[in-house]
């Protein structure tokens, strides 16, 4: 597969994002609840929080991935961004997630004055952990019983990528 097109999310992407985020194999690895509403996603895309960006990846002319990148608005942590990522299960292992992460790193390193990108991932999500490590994220800590998934509390890992000096 060729490198996917990465662009800013637009209101007309909401239906495709809902199609991705409503899949059980997606939401069970995130801290979002099942059954997200159209209005929830429309609000996120059209009125992002301060410092927040939403990018989508396109393959075969359809939205197949989403990345949320939020630069911290606290002046003492304005060098830090938080990354959230999701790829449609039908398009995993095709470089979509890697392309979205590389775009986040490029934006942070070259445009946003961000030197630290943070993320949280469930400790048993080994494919995601390996993908994050391949683009330079390192393990920084573990939180026991971090989130509830399918009625069971699951540990999470804190990972970060630091801009090289």
From TrEMBL:
GO molecular function: acyltransferase activity, transferring groups other than amino-acyl groups
InterPro entries linked to this entry: Acyl_CoA_acyltransferase, GNAT_dom
UniProt key word Oxidoreductase: no
Ranges of residues in domain N-acetyltransferase: 4-164
Keyword annotations from UniProtKB, A to Z: Acyltransferase, Transferase
Top-rank taxon: Bacteria
Signal sequence, start to end: none
Matches recorded under Pfam families: Acetyltransf_1
Residue spans crossing the bilayer: none
PROSITE patterns, alphabetized: GNAT
Name of the molecule in the record: Putative acetyltransferase
Species this chain originates from: Mangrovibacter plantisponsor
Source taxonomy: Bacteria, Pseudomonadati, Pseudomonadota, Gammaproteobacteria, Enterobacterales
């Amino acid at each position: 597969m060729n490198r996917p097109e990465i662009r800013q999310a637009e209101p007309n992407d909401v239906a495709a994002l809902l199609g991705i985020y409503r899949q059980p194999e997606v939401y069970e690895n995130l801290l979002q609840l099942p059954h997200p509403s159209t209005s929830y996603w429309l609000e996120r895309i059209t009125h992002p929080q301060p410092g927040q960006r939403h990018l989508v990846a396109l393959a075969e002319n359809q939205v197949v991935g989403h990345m949320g990148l939020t630069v911290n608005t606290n002046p003492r942590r304005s060098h830090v961004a938080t990354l959230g990522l999701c790829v449609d299960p039908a398009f995993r292992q095709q470089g979509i997630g890697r392309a979205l992460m590389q775009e986040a790193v490029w934006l942070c390193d070259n445009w946003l004055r961000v030197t630290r990108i943070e993320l949280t991932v469930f400790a048993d999500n080994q494919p995601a952990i390996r993908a994050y490590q391949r683009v330079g994220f390192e393990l920084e800590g573990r939180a026991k019983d971090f989130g509830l998934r399918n009625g069971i509390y699951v540990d999470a890992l804190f990972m970060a990528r630091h801009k090289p000096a």
